[in-house]
Design goal:
alpha+beta, DNA polymerase, domain 1, Dna Ligase, domain 1, 3 domains, 14 helices, 14 strands, globular, binds magnesium ion, transferase, DNA-directed DNA polymerase, nucleotidyltransferase
């Protein structure tokens, strides 16, 4: 197999939404903080590091978060602000390379094999970027530097928050020695169960298995597993990642009031969730669309700082978005739709969870 030597940086802002809020509220820095609207059906968009110590996470119902941590501070999300910071860090990336592949508002891959400022070391590029981000936005980012995307993504999590880890080509096999399979991108619950049944727990456990054996057990993903166990990942940084949404909608047989429309949410969510899961997509943004009886379309969206983990997270977000629609008792609706966006392939990018 051809082996391409690249210098890839994965940049990931630390607890992004929460950090933007805490930048403006330094008095709350040591306290558990979540970004969420207050309300009966509210869900958490992001949790600060002190809040995570209580088990709080994004997409969790706010009521659960408050039970786990009664003194949690709740700040309302400001998505336009997060988008503005996102554009700013993108400009900082562009000082070094045009090969930028954004994964979400606060995460991107950069190919700096050839970088605009001709810095000899990719770790130097990453240091410059992180220093500029801190100086210009007041926020910290973590970076992973490696010869490929798979390793760069894992490395950025290694010393989070405000950390940087380089995996040089000669360090790859040592690095892979201690990597549990459960932490490998794309290993979902079903695959994990299968691995347990086969007695595979560490990435190195896969090494004795042939490509054919892995494909037999894991289907197409077996090919990827075979390569990852050897630290191989030849995917290039793709700057023209298209913006997609997976959605489903239903037109009602009778126009319905807002209160009655939520019964359609579970089924629509399940349908969209299954179709995303089948294509191995994870999502961070939820959208609900309603069409009024007189054909006006209303949409509301909610973004999370990490991937939605389960269909119930998706449903909870939709129910909350319905509460953010105009609460006009006279309004009737003829259509409801739900969608997932900010999609990325889980077998490419993996999940956001802390690795060690
Ligand atoms: Mg992040």
């Amino acid at each position: 197999m051809s082996h391409i030597v690249r210098k890839i940086i994965h940049i990931d802002m630390d607890a992004f939404f929460a950090s933007v809020e805490l930048r403006d509220r330094p008095d709350l820095r040591e306290q558990p903080v979540v970004v969420a609207w207050e309300g009966a059906r509210s869900v958490v968009c992001a949790a600060s590091y002190p809040a995570r110590k209580f088990g709080l996470r994004s997409a969790m119902p706010l009521s659960v978060a408050k039970r786990l941590c009664p003194h949690v501070v709740c700040l309302p999300p400001r998505f336009p602000e997060y988008q503005q910071v996102s554009r700013h860090i993108h400009h900082i990336f562009a000082r070094h390379t045009e090969l930028i592949e954004p994964l979400s508002l606060d995460e991107a891959y950069l190919d700096v094999t050839h970088n605009k400022q001709n810095l000899p070391y990719a770790c130097e590029v990453a240091s410059h970027i992180r220093a500029d981000i801190l100086a210009e936005t007041g926020l910290t980012a973590s970076a992973g530097i490696a010869p490929n995307k798979f390793l760069a993504k894992i490395a950025s999590d290694w010393r989070k928050p405000n950390g940087q880890t380089t995996i040089a080509p000669q360090q790859i096999s040592a690095f892979l020695q201690h990597l549990p399979l459960s932490k490998i991108p794309g290993v979902g619950e079903k695959t994990q169960l299968k691995m347990q049944q086969l007695g595979l727990t560490m990435l190195t456990d896969v090494l004795p298995l042939s490509r054919g054996e892995l494909v037999l057990h894991f289907g197409k993903y077996g090919h990827r597993l075979y390569d990852l166990a050897r630290g191989i990942d030849d995917r290039s940084v793709n700057p023209s990642r298209e913006h997609q949404q997976i959605s489903s909608e239903t037109t009602l047989s009778h126009d319905a009031y807002l209160d009655d429309i939520s019964v359609y949410v579970p089924e629509l969510c399940q349908e969209v969730w299954d179709s995303a899961a089948k294509r191995r997509y994870a999502a961070r943004t939820v959208t609900v669309k309603l069409k009024t009886a007189d054909f006006h379309t209303l949409t509301r969206s909610l973004s999370f700082s990490s991937d939605l983990l389960q269909v119930s997270d998706f449903q909870a977000a939709c129910l909350q978005l319905l509460q953010r629609m105009p609460q006009d008792a006279a309004l009737r609706f003829r259509l409801i739709g739900v969608g997932l966006s900010q999609l990325h392939r889980t077998d490419e990018e993996g999940h956001q969870y802390s690795m060690w």
